[in-house]
Specification:
This protein has one domain: NagB/RpiA/CoA transferase-like (Rossmann fold, 3-Layer(aba) Sandwich), CATH 3.40.50. The protein is about 25% helix and about 25% strand. The protein contains four helices and 13 strands.
Length: about 200
Amino acid sequence: MQPEAIREFRKRERVRLIAAREALGEATVGGYRQQIDAYLERVFASLPESPVAFCWPIRNEYDARHFAATLRRRGTLTALPVVIGPGHQLAFREWHSGVILETGPLGIPYPAESRVLVPRVLVLPMVGFDEQGYRLGYGGAYFDRTLAGMEPKPVAIGVAYELARLATIQPQSWDVPMDWVVTERGAYRREKTGLALQGQTG
């Protein structure tokens, strides 16, 4: 596929997948959230626990705030991303109840004045994902740029619903695959042959 065709493919799939996600009912989204929470707890049994960064949910995404609260009750530091500007890596600031939030790009809240953290784990929403663990985002490349520049590299866990699965996102040189993908079906670990389902909770 030529670069222009890939851009058009991604744009078309992004629109389609977001519309499908936004069409889900509240009860369905809530049920998916509980299932994903359960699988994340299983994944985190063998991963670094602190600090963990997650994203504020928009447009019917998986809501990681419930899982973040569970982590904090265990003593884990949690953070939200902060957009510094176009072409820059994201920063991460500590977030918990009581931290002052301001509104950033796309109307997404971010911590205004809390301390900067360097996360060891990122829990990232995905518009789409493919069989090799590559993530289709909103098109800004913020997380690809951030993951490529972080040292040591954090564990990247992409979260989405199964309806977001694609055969391929047509990955490019700048795309960074997820280490794990978690959906309402289960937790998938990225291996050389692709995503491998690691079991289900029920």
